[in-house]
Design goal:
Layout: E1 23-24, H1 37-50, H2 52-55, E2 56-58, H3 63-78, E3 84-85, E4 89-91, E5 97-99, H4 105-112, E6 116-123, E7 126-133, H5 142-145, H6 150-153, H7 162-174, E8 181-189, E9 214-224, E10 231-241, H8 242-248
Antiparallel strand pairs: 1-8, 2-7, 3-4, 4-5, 6-7, 6-10, 8-9, 9-10
Helix pairs in contact: 1-4, 3-4
Length: about 250
């Protein structure tokens, strides 16, 4: 399969910041359409058709928040010139028309935007993953993380200790309506495949080596929904070839 790659980014993924590396985000930048849009959306459609049970999950108690998320995304798309939002359908920039199925909010979202979307709802003292469309996981699985709290989601990340867990929980508690946040990560990968699930005890795929040919970066966003209070964790995945990275950020290669 030919790799699905971007040729540009709106940020420098080689300029790393200490965890969690959070910054304010303009609400208008929540949904991104980039030069890999058509091919990423086609791959999402394939995964949703062939691996739906692996890339979609929703606790029934999360249905109100999922419905609110769908409406929020539709509002953003309606304000964009590259989408046409009607009463029951959306025409994407690639010309594909997506039916709005309100009985399947996460599935519909999976066909509407490039980024993966995870709903985090406060249950007790921690935010819990209650719904998601996750087509492009990078070394984790929705099956294992579904209905886990933040600290359980980040197992077995060595850097995510008790101190980091408290910091991230405070971050989620502090996300305000109308004041979204964003961060990014970036690692060199041998394999440019977007869908790279890995269970916690499986051998880690080869990544991180500077000799690898592809830089994979996630632009992650945090958005508070006003009615449910849920936090939406968005993941927009980009993969760039080494020569593109070298052309954009020569000192990084």
């Amino acid at each position: 399969m030919t790799p699905i790659l971007q040729t540009r980014l709106g940020y420098d993924p080689t300029h790393h910041k200490p965890l969690p590396g959070i910054a304010p985000m303009d609400s208008a930048d929540w949904i991104i359409v980039d030069d890999a849009h058509a091919r990423q959306m086609a791959e999402r459609a394939r995964l949703l058709a062939e691996k739906r049970d692996k890339v979609i999950a929703m606790d029934e108690c999360a249905r109100p928040a999922a419905a609110e998320l769908l409406d929020a995304v539709l509002d953003v798309l309606a304000a964009r010139a590259d989408h046409a939002v009607g009463a029951g359908q959306v025409r994407r920039p690639d010309g594909v028309t997506v039916a709005i199925d309100r009985d399947d909010p996460m599935g519909t979202l999976g066909h509407l935007v490039q980024q993966d979307l995870c709903l985090m709802e406060k249950r007790g003292d921690e935010h819990v993953l209650t719904a998601a469309v996750l087509c492009f996981p990078a070394s984790w699985t929705l099956e294992e993380k579904f209905l886990r709290p933040l600290i359980g989601i980040h197992l077995p990340v060595a850097e995510y200790d008790a101190t980091m867990a408290r910091r991230v929980q405070r971050l989620f508690d502090g996300v305000q309506v109308g004041r979204p946040l964003w961060r990014f990560n970036a690692l060199w990968y041998v394999d440019p495949t977007l869908h790279q699930p890995r269970r916690e005890n499986d051998r880690r795929i080869e990544r991180g080596a500077r000799s690898a040919d592809y830089l994979r970066t996630e632009r992650q966003s945090l958005v508070r929904l006003p009615q449910s209070g849920a936090v939406v964790f968005g993941i927009h995945t980009s993969v760039l070839a080494r020569d593109v990275v070298q052309g954009l950020w020569p000192a990084a290669v």
